[in-house]
Amino acid sequence: MKSKLFAGFVEHTRYQPVKHQFQYHLYFYGLDLDELPLLDRKNILFGYNRRRPATVLDADYLDDRPGTIKEKLLRILSEKQPGTAVSSVLMITSARYLNYAFNPVSFYYCFDKHQNVTAMVAEVNNTFGERHLYIPEKTGGTARPPNTQLSNQKTDDPIYHTPKVFHVSPFNNLEGEYKFHFPVPADELDVRIDLVRDNATAFSARLWGAALPLSALNLFYKMIRYPMAPHLTKPRIFLEAARLYFGKHLTYHNKPEPTSPMTIKRKR
Fold it and tell me: How far are the Cα atoms of 3, 102, 169, 174, 236 from residue 255, in angstroms, in the given order?
């Protein structure tokens, strides 16, 4: 089975205009979208379109049109990136836990029949009930810009870039460009995102995890070890926002109205 469970951490580092950093431990999933029905049958703790302790719902992802996650993704790619060959998709995400989840970001690795990555998609959610789909362009492997302090950076990592057009944090405006570092997951996953302005990194995010078989036993252990992790994502976002606003006095940027057709307002 290609689907995996990952145990690791998420880390954010702000370099401008003040230094601010945090890291939280968590677990998350690497799901082969073709295996979701099989996981539903084989793993008693995992449900696909039905309620179990961990659940993935087609309706939670991408746009509001009908279809499975893979069907919706292929439809979007055919519209926005025609001719992209996709045989399988690995989705990096957090499943619902006890019927709740807030995913700041999910990633889609799109592979052709030879297991070459043909497209990457980042699905970003903000706390205002909006989501945005980035389909960044691949630019190859290059060194990171100044102000970056990750010691394990590989200069040959696949790098993708796209302009920042979606409001997430009120302490960042819409200026700059994202650079996504998307190594293909194997024994570990190490995704890194840089927000670059004037050739300097203003903000970096990192999602790292060690891969485990997605068995009921491994999933049970993670649920016991991190019982509140899925429910703490939003409170942690608000906590860090309070630290930036009250503790470091950063400027608050009001949310602009979305202008991109790739931004989706969620139905309530």
Answer: 36, 19, 9, 10, 20
The total domain count for the chain is: 1
| 3-state SS class at 35 | helix
Mean of per-residue pLDDT scores for the chain? 92
Phi/psi of residue 195, nearest 5 degrees: -100, 115
β-strand pairing of 137-140 with 159-163 = antiparallel
Amino acid 86 reads V
Q: How many residues does the chain have?
A: 268
Q: What is the pLDDT of residue 152?
A: 45
Cα–Cα distances (Å) from 154 to 115, 144, 158, 209, in that order, read 21, 9, 9, 17
1-21 tens-digit pLDDT: 899 999 999 999 999 999 999
Closest residue by Cα to residue 133 from 186, 81, 58, 205: 81
pLDDT digits (tens, 9 = 90+) for 217-233: 999 999 999 988 889 99
Q: Which amino acid is at 106?
A: S
Q: CA–CA separation, 9 vs 81, rounded Å?
A: 32
A 10 A CB-CB count for 140 gives 9
φ, ψ (nearest 5 deg) of residue 152: -100, 20
Q: What percent of the chain has pLDDT over 90?
A: 88
Three-state SS at 34: helix
Domain containing 74 equals: 4-265
Q: Is the pLDDT of residue 151 over 80?
A: no
Cβ atoms within 10 Å, residue 102: 15
